[in-house]
Amino acid sequence: MTADVPHKTTASRATGRLGDASPFALGLLLRRAHWHAAAVMAEAFRPLGIEVRHFAVLIVLMDRGPTVQRDLAAATGSDKAGIMRVVDDLERKGLAVRKAVPGDRRVRAVEIMPEGVELFDAAHVAAEPLAERLVAELAPGEPEQLADLLARFASSGGGGA
């Protein structure tokens, strides 16, 4: 331990166990929940030839319509290089296309293609039974409560989104 880091012998250390009082416990729990949910969704998307990152972009395009890459990156938590790779993949698969934005020849908006809409719908059908498996251990009403809490957390100043 360096001299600049204060040592506090009563500090709660992150363990990842239920009831962990560490200041990192919530973040660790959210990360584990994300990994679990992403693995289940990846299972649903694999037969369709896409990954969770592709589906995240399709969600934004379905919700917002044509969207510039900078806004796609912000909406999906990606960086510029990452979003470019995802859009390249979607274009290669015929699911989306980049189009010029009127008035700014440097900017391209990404637009979902009819094949992308079909795949989006097929992904929902494939994911539904797996999504139900994700919340199978929760009591009636708890999935909705969890979704509400996570939405509030994600939209708060401390949620990072």
Walk me through what this model shows.
By secondary structure, the protein is mainly alpha-helical. 56% of the residues lie in helices and 11% in strands. The chain is built from six helices and three strands. It has helices at residues 25-45, 52-64, 69-76, 80-92, 114-134, 142-155, and strands at 67-68, 96-101, 104-112. Strands 1-3-2 form a three-stranded antiparallel β-sheet. Strand 2 and strand 3 form a beta hairpin. Helix 2 packs across helix 5. The two termini are 34 Å apart. The mean pLDDT is 86.
Which keywords apply here?
globular, three-stranded antiparallel beta sheet, 3 strands, 161 residues, mainly alpha
Brief summary:
The chain is mainly alpha-helical. The chain has helices at residues 25-45, 52-64, 69-76, 80-92, 114-134, 142-155, and strands at residues 67-68, 96-101, 104-112.
Secondary structure topology:
Elements: H1 25-45, H2 52-64, E1 67-68, H3 69-76, H4 80-92, E2 96-101, E3 104-112, H5 114-134, H6 142-155
